[in-house]
User: Fold these one by one.
Assistant:
Number 1:
Amino acid sequence: MNRETCLYQGHLAHFTHRADVKDAWEKRWQSADLKQMYRWADSGALGVYRRSFLKYLPRDELIVEAGCGTGRYVRALIGYDYKVVGIEWEYQIIRRAKQVWPSAPLICGDVRHFPLPDKSVAAVISLGVIEHFEEPWQVLQDTVRILQPGGFLYLVVPYVNRLRRLQIARGKYPERTSGAGIYQYLLSDSEICSALQMMGFVVKTSFSTSAFAGLNDEFPRIGNFIKKLPHAHRLINGLNKLRLLGPLFGHVVHYIAEKRLS
């Protein structure tokens, strides 16, 4: 995906095409190999999320993945005996998923308006969703409504790591006055923490991953060199999982936050 990184209305953002419309996601998922994804899920693989999912997600209570796409993490978590439902607004991917996985607990719905009662959910997983909307934090308002007091939010978003902060200070990124073609915002750590606190969450822990993705964004020549190395796939996966490099190069940050009891 060719994309440009720019400053827009005081935020860092990636521009390619608008991602807050359904057509964009329908095209993205058309080529997804669902059988392969579900084989991966059935193996118990949870990627970079495994350690924190198994530590923080509650057993025997309802968990919702907001913006679940193909539902591969829903399926993987079910394999660990979690009670999980996926919400996805792109109907065609749900239709395709149920052709391969007829019993899939996937619901067509908008993460800004969950088809669920107040305080009915013990945890909400949001993996790279809110940054695609013009007002990212408004997207989480309904998450607050459906979460029980003491419930968990597992939030993953692209963020402004140390390298990106340095690049901003150096004036590397051009400024845009139009939001046409915006794909996603890259959010700052201070903005994320402040927003979660204002919504009534207490951050339990946070960490950043996807160091290769962040490095490749800023230095594509280095990224292309790594891609040509022997066993590049394993190396890239290792870099992306390595939390040690996250603060410097990590493309995304993970927040595990608990909704206050009152």
Note: The chain has twelve helices and eleven strands.
Number 2:
Amino acid sequence: MERKENGVPQDPVYSKTVLEMLTVANEYCLFLEKAESYDRQDILLFLQKICPLIYIKASLLPVIELTDEEAAEHFVTEEEWEGLFNTLHLKFGEDDLYYFIDPHERSHTDPVKSSLAENFTDIYQDLKDFVLLYQKPRKVSMEFAVYECKRLFETRYGFRLVRAHSVLHYLLNKEGDKGELQDLFEML
């Protein structure tokens, strides 16, 4: 499906929405690759701001019709994944683990244990594969990169983004809540 921009047909693989997603994904990956050099607060603040951007940009990705389904490639190694996970796990400390209710499970009342470090490392893996595959000089690689990024957003990392972002919000604002409650009690 070709879109027209100023009356000229444009291939969705080269669209503005894809390039914006590529930019945001690249920023996310570059930051996390240097996570060891940042303190916990800087990491939380960065993630608080970039997660909604990733969500919005990924939700706007175009539907891509694949011409070659054999173009799949994965680049993030198990060692790289583990290294990033361990770094984030140490940075998040006792706040790494959290619980949520999964509406897709049969029992909607049993909390599921999750990890911020695991969520953000999984998102990193999906986005890094997208960025690196899109940079390949073949159009079929770019098509597959966009197709897979959209598919994984819809089935995997979109859910992780939403859940982890709510935890980030809590972590960054829990101190403020205590202060407001204290002010309220002092007024009574």
Note: The beta strands are 3-5, 8-10, 97-101, 111-115.
